[in-house]
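My current task is to audit a protein record that another person submitted. Alongside the sequence sits a line of tokens, each denoting a local backbone shape. Please read both lines and tell me whether the tokens look consistent with the sequence. Do not assume that whoever made the record got everything right. Thanks in advance; the entry in question is below.
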Amino acid sequence: MGYGSASQAGRPAILPAPGRLSLGPARVAGGRQGLFPLAALERWIGAADCCPWAASCGRTPAARAGAPRPLYTPEQRRRRDASKWTTVQALLAPTQFLICLISVALVLHYLATGAGYGAATASILVKTAALGTIMVTGSLWERDIFGQYLFAPAFFWEDVFSLLVIALHLAYVAALLGGVAAPQQMLIALSAYAAYIVNATQFVLKMRAARQGAADAR
């Protein structure tokens, strides 16, 4: 019987909600559950889907209900406020950004004039050290709040992109030690800085959303 036709008892057929597909357990003749438990698959997809845009795309129950998931639970918020690493991160983040701005200026000056290679190189190494420091302390912060050093669901994609940022900074160090031509070294450094800016923007937007969510909860 097709959608829209009446049932044998004279009652109208119930149409599925537009855009919704039930992933309940598959049934076969005799009421037995099928060999492919779709409900279990739906739960697995929900657990694995850590994409930060899932809620806005309407793929999560929270988005369909109009209740976005908060960044912190009340207990996690309490641990965040009590952690010493929260203060450390608040100091290191703007410091690293300032170092990055200075280094970008020195690198661009070298590429434009051919002078100041030593200063540009030193600034990149300082930036790399600052990145390493904030990544280590950030992992300790994440452990204090979420109970794991990396890939907590609240910061999953930020952590993933952070690994790319670290890889590019380490690629610069490898190029420096490997004797790659100076202009190529500087271009690698600039690509690392571009990735760092994207990653920093991720964190800033996440923290802004957390503050907005906390304000709305009040």
